[in-house]
Amino acid sequence: MARRLAGALLTLVGVSLLVFLVLRVIPGNQITASLGTESGVLTPEQLASLRSYYGLNQPLPLQYLDWLANVCTGNLGLSLRSGQSVSAMTAASLPVTLELALLATAFGFVLGVGLGMLSASKPNGVRDALGQGVGLLALAIPSFVIASALVSYLAAKFGYFPNALPYAAPWEDPLLNIQQLMFPALVLGFGVAAPVMRTTRSAIIEVSSLDFVRTARGKGVSPRQVAFRHVLRNAMIPIVTATGIQFGYLLGGAVIVEQIFALPGIGRQVLNGILQREYAVVQSSVLIIAAAFVVVNLLVDVLYRQIDPRVRAE
Amino acid sequence: MEPLLKVSDLSVVSSGREGRQEIVRGVSFEVREAESVALVGESGSGKSLTMLAVMGLLGPGLSSPTGEVRFGGRELRGMPEGELRQLRGAELSMIYQDPMTSLNPMMRIGDQVAETLTAHGTGESEASRRARKELARVGIPDPDRTARSYPHEFSGGMRQRAMIATALVAGPRLLIADEPTTALDVTIQQQILALVRERQRSDRMATIWISHDLGVVAQLVTRVLVMYAGRIVEDAPVRELFAAPQHPYTAALLASLPHAGDLVRAPLAQIGGVPPAPGSVPSGCSFRPRCPQAVEKCLEDPALMPRNSSLAACWVPREEWK
Amino acid sequence: MSEVGVAIRLPSAATAPTREPWWQRLLASRSGAVGAALTGAVLLAALAALAGLVPHDPIVQHPADRLLSPSWTYLLGTDQFGRDTLARCMAGAAASLQVSLLAVGLATVVGTTIGVIAGWYGGWIDLVAMRLTDVFFAFPAILLALTVVAALGRGWFNVAIAIAIVYTPIFVRMARAPVLSLREAQYVLAGRLLGFSVPRLLLRHVLPNISSIVIVQITLALSWAILTESSLSFLGLGQPPPAPSLGQMVSEAKSLAVVAPWTLFAPALVIVIAVVGLNLLGDGLRDALDPTQER
């Protein structure tokens, strides 16, 4: 376990390096220029804080360490347009993405496991072709297509566009919140369902051929109990792992859907940062998302160890 | 009196990539109440598949197109799956070779033993209680703790005992034991065999022992069925089999067993050639190519015929052997 | 223990089936045939667009013919500027394939090379390679692509670079795994004993044996690249207009979807056909090239 933590930490360091280096490709004078001309909104203290965040006019390795120090103490930079700190922006946007990702993963899990069980019930039969066909379509139809079509039709045909209203947090207006998140979660859920279905199918087929399933049948256990208590329970480990990873992906991968449905999530935060040349926003947000992904992977690992009694004993 | 189990002309075929292959054909035998019988043969002779076909547990790609199986007077072939399930575990039970893989790794042992009962209508607490009693009966120390534990926490011998508990808790009339000791240490083997033999006697339970080891089963059974290339070639009471085998294959098997009293290590007699693969069984008697007694008549497939107090699938009586 | 009989089994006379060429086997399987057909169709459309064999110029506007539904003149209708949807779809497919092929080509060459070297030499080279791929895998793919495009700026070439960067680690991992086991294979050990040089061993013995895995991965990578390219151009980060791109067409069609559904569904359909085709082709290739591979 300690080994896993150390590995994750190392990965996080690597992630921060990568984020730092990728965005250093942008010529430094662009950043200074933006600090000069568009900095009218910022107070001198904020300006100094941003300068410190960027660590300009220093050799590269020092810039990196400076930036890392800033990040670890909570200075994630500022938005030039609004003067808002990135940490404040993230505190507001991350929960939105989390809620969306949770809903989408839940839907994708149910759909994916259902389709996978259907496919695996009679491999290479009609049901299998159907299940796999739906899975392939879920993969092939880009999320932006479904999302765009949905938004257009709902708005034009039914005048239904809850996302035109400002975003409502679950504790502010739960009904509106659900309305706003329902369709985006559905669209993203299809993307989650495809790999979950594939994992479920192969896991079930593999487990079904194991000896203890035969033992259960030999005891006279009903097919339903065999399917759930014996096959599915043992197939769950890879399924849960795959689902967890999909959830992690959604944290940054939901950007397009967030954009189309006007949800103020962290993916949209990155995108807006890119389009508005807010480099601090982009740099810090990407770091946060990647760090969150590493944490999610770690949690999935822990979860899987809890489920499997064989590993739990270690 | 009608035998407990009567199998007639059973066959098992596999339909896979290489087409349709007959693995077992024309198998017929009987097992009476409380009788213990051995089904002996080399690996690949079809003995496990025969019994899986009897239980109706053949895997994908395998089927049993012909044959009748009468158990307790009822015909199992063609019986709806729901009725068959009521028999499995309760009247007709099976234990398997590898206890490591034959137990659900994610289910507690107690639950797995109790499952045999709950699958047949027993209430949960009652089943739990009887499961614990059964675990004690098969010689597991501290049955309460064992019941709450998982299979991986135990050694092979204990796991096999747990599996036996699972199979016997409902008091079946017939137990099929598919090489239950092959995967275990030699010392544990004897314990397990003794356990089953004891239960067989005390519960008056019929047993079919599947084995590739003639020496081991000799002490456990009253009758032996010898299988070769998917057919039963001899069906004899155990003493007669050892004293005077009626089929050349049986004779060759016995000759290849080392004798306990050998002072000088004589080279073990081997049977020339190899058993035929399922797809290429010769016409006529399947043992003919390797048989020292083969004659012209052997081109015709022999059925089991009475030879003294046994049955043997051979045209040449023992008295006429070279 | 006293074994019964002899346990050796000789192989029967007719064991190995005769091997027909891989493309026959590919077309014999349902998914392979359908996949090849769909992919081929998209490829043909793209090539036609590149050769100029389009019904109308994809960029030219016909203001009098705005938002026409499909007809014999405009087989897939026109958009809000009177541009022929079919021609734009074909040109968009060409653009998509151009980006995807470049990106996947780069990722394949770089990734496979690194993966083979890491798997062959092992030790700290392998350790570093694995840690690096871990870092790349810590990013949701689309986010990484977005970040690279953010740094490099928009345009088709930068999108290709971004996709290549995201996919290279996947090829590294995929190429490394079989090399680890092949390193100990009999004929490789024989070669090493005989003193063959490392490049020769790698090129002549190791590479051909991982080629089937690489080829299958290429088709899957291409399908993912097409999805990502269209996503990025949907967001406005691809080649700027008036260059036709499938993602941008969908973005422009958002407001028109109810009035002129073909403007949205035509480019979407091209994307779906390409992705489905490549996936099925990949499945078919996997079975045709190496039936023993695990699904």
Name a few traits of the molecule.
heterotrimer, A: about 325 residues, mainly alpha, about 0% strand, B: about 325 residues, alpha/beta, Rossmann fold, eight-stranded mixed sheet, five-stranded antiparallel sheet, 13 strands, about 30% helix, globular
Topology summary:
The complex is a heterotrimer of chains A (314), B (322) and C (295).
Chain A: H1 2-23, H2 28-37, H3 44-54, H4 60-72, H5 86-121, H6 126-140, H7 143-158, H8 174-208, H9 211-218, H10 223-253, H11 255-260, H12 266-275, H13 279-307, H14 309-312
Helix pairs in contact in A: 1-13, 5-6, 5-8, 5-10, 6-8, 7-8, 8-10, 9-10, 10-13, 12-13
Chain B: E1 5-16, E2 19-31, E3 36-40, H1 47-55, E4 62-63, E5 68-71, E6 74-75, H2 81-87, E7 92-95, H3 109-118, H4 124-137, H5 143-148, H6 156-168, E8 174-178, H7 186-203, E9 206-211, H8 214-217, E10 223-228, E11 231-237, H9 238-243, H10 248-255, E12 305-307, E13 310-312
Parallel strand pairs in B: 3-9, 3-10, 7-8, 8-9
Antiparallel strand pairs in B: 1-2, 1-4, 1-5, 5-6, 10-11, 11-13, 12-13
Chain C: H1 22-28, H2 30-51, H3 85-121, H4 123-137, H5 141-152, H6 156-182, H7 186-193, H8 198-234, H9 246-253, H10 262-289
Helix pairs in contact in C: 1-2, 1-10, 2-3, 2-10, 3-4, 3-6, 3-8, 3-10, 4-6, 5-6, 6-8, 7-8, 8-9, 8-10, 9-10
Descriptive notes:
The complex is a heterotrimer of chains A (314), B (322) and C (295). Chain A has 314 residues and is mainly alpha-helical. Chain A has helices at residues 2-23, 28-37, 44-54, 60-72, 86-121, 126-140, 143-158, 174-208, 211-218, 223-253, 255-260, 266-275, 279-307, 309-312. In chain A, α5 (86-121) runs antiparallel to α6 (126-140), α5 packs across α8 and α7 (143-158) packs antiparallel against α8. Chain B is globular and about 65 Å long. Chain C is 68% helix and 0% strand. The two termini of chain C are 40 Å apart. In chain C, 49% of the residues are buried. Mean pLDDT of chain C is 83; it is low at 1-17. Classes of the chains: A mainly alpha (314), B alpha/beta (322), C mainly alpha (295). Chains in contact: A-B, A-C, B-C. The interface between A and C is large, with 53 and 46 residues.
